Amino acid sequence: MKKSSLSKPGTKTLRERLREETEQALLEAAEQVFAEQGVGGTRIEDISKRAGVAVGTLYNYFEDREELLAALMARRRAELVKMLDEVSEAAHGKPWHEEFDAFLRATLTFLEQHRRFFSILIQGEMAAPCHTSATEKRSGSGLDDIHACAERLVRRGVAEGVLKPEFAALYPALLLGMLRSAIVHDRYTDSPGPLIALLEPFHDFFLKGAGKKR
Length: 214
Prior knowledge:
Layout: H1 14-37, H2 44-51, H3 55-59, H4 65-90, H5 96-113, H6 115-127, H7 134-139, H8 144-159, H9 171-187, H10 199-208
Helix pairs in contact: 1-2, 1-4, 1-6, 4-5, 4-8, 6-9, 8-9
């Protein structure tokens, strides 16, 4: 008797798997080309060539360059949020400082993995005029879900008496701004080192501040 050719519930068909693999290849190629040429200097043709597909194939997945960039940003955000959720789950029953260090380590490691791409985005952001771009309209602020992860971390720190509660509402934004500065720092450094080297200074700066003791 022949085996049924129908897929089991929950399994993906060959066509679905191929589509996902092609989309992933396009996003990976886009990240490489954006990092090399800048967002403004990248053409759809450059990305399709890097991915090894026809331009028409790329348009079957993404309407234009802006939609491709928005999808790439959304994918990277989702990956980081997944990492931070895993950090939070693994920290149950452990001291808050261990979760805080793991949060910093995970974020700095992720930024390192996609360093050139985020550097290009931030440099373009710093040079851009003060108005909302088409990409920003499509992708939103991009920080809401990551900010929620930082809020969760801060709430635990306040509840356990590790963080002062007076300005707790500011702490998530301050923490994310500090981590973002890891990439901004590259712009003003002749020979930037590995981002994980910033773990200890970021830890001390967030918990102790920059003020000199008198």
